[in-house]
Design brief:
Blueprint (H helix, E strand, L loop, with lengths): L1 H9 L1 H12 L5 H12 L5 H13 L3 E6 L2 E6 L2 H9 L11 H4 L2
Antiparallel strand pairs: 1-2
Helix pairs in contact: 1-4, 2-3
């Protein structure tokens, strides 16, 4: 799963789509295309955006739900949390006494 996640995050257009979903989750393909065009001057076809969303969905970063004839896209940050849990940052060591603070 990590390979799919890193592949999805490697593309700047997909990161922009994630930014837009972070700003406002639950958008349709039409809404995402409009925001990419207006806010980021990205002239992508609906098919291209749909392909990017498929990569993000296969990586688990985007979840979809259908309501009637509309398909909504929601951001899922759980895979990102899994990465941070995989490589935890160690706590900085604080000297406990004067003997440890001298070189």
């Amino acid at each position: 799963m990590a390979d799919d996640l890193f592949k999805a995050l490697a593309d700047p257009t997909r990161r922009t789509i994630l930014d837009e979903l972070a700003d406002r989750s639950g958008q349709t393909l039409f809404e995402i295309c409009g925001r990419l065009s207006m806010k980021h001057q990205l002239g992508l076809s609906r098919q291209a955006v749909s392909q990017h969303l498929a990569v993000l969905e296969s990586a688990g970063l985007v979840e979809t739900r259908r309501e009637g004839r509309y398909k909504y896209h929601d951001l899922n940050t759980a895979p990102l949390r899994q990465i941070t849990e995989r490589w935890p940052v160690p706590e900085p060591r604080v000297p406990s006494g004067p003997e440890e603070s001298t070189p």
